[in-house]
């Protein structure tokens, strides 16, 4: 049976983690090792000069006082050394295009690849003005996971999945493999008394046609193959 290590960067209490663990259990045996606290946008940070406390929350669930990449290192070396896959997510918010360089979720999948296991990161792009259809999110995530597991796996490769947030609960298209958009963010700052405040608009970022950003923004499930 396939064995899956599940982690995230939003913290062990995040609802997206619970959903991903549930969907992973449909595909094999699962072990969850997730950060005690949120580590969003902290990239591939690692703890190498301090102890990393680990608490067993319940059977197969571990709270790790470290980063997402720490969770994968500990998971594959100590907590679940026979894992066949690493799943990271479901992140609250997209990890598209240049996001892959700062995302803790993607870093977890990258760490899996560095340690010789296939990994995937899965994120839910959000438009804050729209309600999120939980059932639709579940269906899309399930379809995306099964799609990726059915693809040929490359040595030292990993995957980045982004679920769309379509208007009016419209159903998303089937998953599609898309290149990662290299376009920069919408980088703007507002000067205030206490310093500069970032005010770029994530949704207005430039995008290359048929890239992961474009596909997801247009309501599709974007799947990108990444390599070390």
Shape: globular
SS-derived structural category = alpha/beta
Number of strands: 11
Query: What's the SSE pattern?
Result: EHEEEHEHEHEEEEHE
Kindly state the mean pLDDT as a whole number? Answer: 93
Task: Provide the spatial order of strands within the biggest beta sheet.
Answer: 3-4-2-1-5-6-7-11-8
Number of domains: 1
CATH superfamily: Survival protein SurE-like phosphatase/nucleotidase
Helix content: 10-25%
The termini sit apart by 27 Å
Strand percentage: 25-35%
Low-confidence stretches: none
| CATH fold call | Stationary-phase Survival Protein Sure Homolog, Chain: A
Largest sheet: 9 strands, mixed
The count of helical stretches stands at: 5
Q: What's the multimeric state?
A: single chain
Rg measurement, Å: 17 Å
Which CATH class? Alpha Beta
Structure description:
The protein has 5 helices and 11 strands; from the N terminus they run E-H-E-E-E-H-E-H-E-H-E-E-E-E-H-E. It is of the alpha/beta class and 228 residues long. It has a single domain, classed as Survival protein SurE-like phosphatase/nucleotidase (Stationary-phase Survival Protein Sure Homolog, Chain: A, 3-Layer(aba) Sandwich), CATH 3.40.1210.10. The chain is globular and about 45 Å long.
